[in-house]
Amino acid sequence: MPLKKVLITRIIPAIAKTMLTDAGLEVVEWSGDGPMSQQELIVRAKQVNALLSLGADKLDKHFFSQCPHLDIIGQFAVGYDNIDVEEATKAGIPVSNTPDVLSEATADVAFGLMIAVSRKMFYNHKTIIRGEWKQFEPLKNLGFQLSGKTLGIFGMGRIGMVMAKRCKGAFDMDIIYHNRSRNPEAEKLFGAKYVSFEKLIRESDVLSVHSVLSDETRGLFNMDVFRQLKPTAIFINTSRGGVHNEADLIEALNQGLIWGAGLDVTNPEPMKPDNPLLEMPNVAVLPHIGSATVEARTGMARIAAENIISFYQSGEVPNCINRQVLEVRKS
Asked: With contact defined as beta carbons under 8 Å apart, do 50 and 4 qualify?
C-alpha cells in the first residue's frame, strides 16, 4: 500500500515533519515565500491525502469542491475561520486545531499591550528615535496606573483565563466577563463576575477580546460599542482582526471616545504602513505575534501532527472541530 501523503502548507517547526515521517507518512512541504494562491494549493492538495494548513490558507466551498478526497485537515492554529467547516463536514473531512498550547503566549501579548497602551510606550519610544526627547516634562505624555482597575474579558476561554490570572495577580484588577456560558472556574479563582455584554462595555477600564471570529462576533466592536465604553477605556484585541471595525476604531480614538487601543490583530492583515493607528500616541500595534514563542509554535506543530497521526492510526482525532464526521465514519 502506498504511503499516505501529507502537505504542510508553510515551513513550520521541524518536529511536525519528524513526527509524521516517523509515523510512516510521506511529507511534502511548501517552502515558497508566503502562502500559496488558492489555485496552487488546490493543485498540490489533489496530490496528497492530508493537509496541515495555516490560517492564511483559504479552505472554502470552492476548495472542498475540488478536494473532497482529503482524509483530514490539521490546522496549525487555534482559530479556524479560514476553513468552511460546514463544507468540510459535508465532504466527510475531519478538521482539527491546536488548542491550549498558545494560551500563555497569547495572554502575555494581551497583557503587554495593555501596559504599553496605558503608558504610551510605543509612542514614547518613537520620540527617542525622532530626536524629540530633550528634557523632563512633567505634564507631557502621561499615562495611568492599572492597579485596581476593572478588566472586562469578552470570551472567557483558555486565553481569557490566563489574561485574568495575569491581571488579578499583577494589578489586583476586578474581573468581569461576558461569554456564551458562565465560567465557574474563573469566578472561583479570580472572583470574576459574569455580566451582560452591555454592562461589560460600560464598566470595563480595559476591554480585552479573546473570542473566536464567527458570524456573531464579526465586526461586533464598532462605533456603537466604542461610544458606550468609558472615555478612559483601553480596547485590546488579540483574537482576530475581523472582530473589530478598524475604521470605527480609528474614528473613536480620533474623537477621544476611548483612551487607547492595543492590537495584535488588524483588519485587514497585514496592516498598511501608513495606517493612522501606527502614529497615534495611545495605540500599540503588533504584527499578529500572539503565538510567536519557541514553546508555543513548537507545541502547535506537535499537536497538529498528533491530530493527523492519531487519525491514521486509530480513527480518532484528539482536537476535532467537527467530531460528527468521526462518528459517521464509525457507523
From this structure: yes
Q: How many CB atoms lie within 10 A of CB 72?
A: 24
178 and 154 in contact (C-beta within 8 Å)?
Answer: yes
The per-residue pLDDT for range 47-59, each reduced to its tens digit, is 999 999 998 999 9
Q: Where are the alpha helices (DSSP H) in the chain?
A: 15-22, 38-45, 61-66, 85-90, 103-118, 121-129, 158-171, 184-190, 197-203, 223-228, 246-254, 294-314, 324-330
Among residues 158, 178, 240, 297, the one annotated as catalytic is 240
What count of other Cβ atoms lies within 10 Å of the Cβ of residue 237?
27
Q: Give pLDDT, residue 329.
A: 77
Q: How many angstroms separate the CA atoms of 198 and 79, rounded?
A: 26
Backbone region of residue 50 per phi and psi (left: phi > 0; alpha: psi in -120 to 50; beta: other values): beta
Q: What are residue 233's phi and psi, to 5 degrees? A: -85, 150
Cβ atoms of 66 and 43 closer than 8 Å: no
Active site residue 202: no
Query: Active site includes 269?
Result: yes
Q: Are 82 and 57 in contact (CB under 8 A)?
A: yes
- Tell me which residue of 9, 3, 86, 82 sits closest to 42, measured CA to CA: 9
**113 and 277 Cβ atoms separated by less than 8 Å:** no
pLDDT digits (tens, 9 = 90+) for 128-187: 999 999 999 999 999 999 999 999 999 999 999 999 999 999 999 999 999 999 999 999
Neighbouring-strand partners of residue 21: none
**Quick check: is 158 catalytic?**
no
Question: Among the options 10, 166, 288, 297, which is catalytic?
Answer: 288
Catalytic residue (choose from 269, 295, 316, 327) = 269
CA–centroid distance for 128 within its chain: 31
**Positions of the chain with pLDDT under 70:** 1, 331
Using one digit for the tens of pLDDT, what is the confidence trace for 280-292?
999 999 999 999 9
Domains present along the chain, CATH in parentheses: 5-100+294-330 (3.40.50.720), 103-285 (3.40.50.720)
